[in-house]
Amino acid sequence: MPRLLFPVFALLLASFLASCAKETAPQQDERLFELRVYHPFPGKLEALHDRFRNHTLALFEKHGMQHVGYWVTDGADPKLVYLVAFADQAEKEQAWKGFLADPDWKAAYAESIKAGRLVERVDSSLLRTTDFSPAIVQESVEPARVFELRRYQASEGNLASLDERFRSATMDLFAKHGASNLVYFHPADGEPGAEDTLIYLLAYESEAARERMWEAFRKDPEWIQAKTASEAKAGGPLTAKGGVTSQILRPVDYSKIR
Q: In angstroms, rounded to a whole number, what is the distance separating the alpha carbons of residues 242 and 239?
């Protein structure tokens, strides 16, 4: 190639590659997500599932709520955990107002609690996806996968550094060792933890696959190097002491993600 043409070719190639990268980069999901946890009264979980299957899901759709996924927690005191999405705060308020006022919901609710209320309390968190979260894939796999909901509280002033470590290293290493990165969130503005919390959801083929993933991940020299470098730059750990929690989730039969 003539010398005079090489700089032009290099410029065009760089522009083409940048354009390709821009086109393939996932677009941030701008929806408002709501993570809800239902604490059923003892012995009422199956009745709660029946109410969701037979009434709640259809009424959510009727009023514009977008199903994401439904799970139950592991352990002796299982809870129903689910994610729904809305275009924005106004749509969320309108959807819930319409749902709660719907005569079909009132009738279904009254019928379901004839032998006693099903739910002791409901916890709700509003979430926004991070700029590095992959697009949510509603994939139903058989046998159903094992899911893990993890919550990290960043040490003071280090949420951006924690995000960067996930963006540049952690997510790729999760995938390398067999985990599926489903979605990454921060609490929405005004929510508890909005300034310091990262919440994310992983999936594994099985419980054994989860155990293998974490064992291999923690021993991986790339992870050790990324962790060491990020903590050296921040002057200490990126998460607060006791600031990492994990919950194993099992998808229910009516979830679009399994």
A: 8
d(CA 96, CA 103): 13
Contact criterion met (CB below 8 Å) for 186 and 130: yes
Share of the chain above pLDDT 90, in %: 86
Q: What CATH number has the domain spanning 32-251?
A: 3.30.70.100
Q: What are phi and psi of 27, to 5 degrees?
A: -80, 135
Question: Rounded CA gap, 177 and 165, in Å?
Answer: 17
Measured CA to CA, the distance from residue 196 to residue 156 in angstroms comes to: 7
On whether the pTM is more than 0.70, the answer is yes
Domain map (residue ranges) of the chain: 32-251
Sequence-distant (≥ 6) Cβ neighbours of residue 192 within 8 angstroms:
125
Residue 22 has a CB neighbour count (10 Å cut-off) of 8
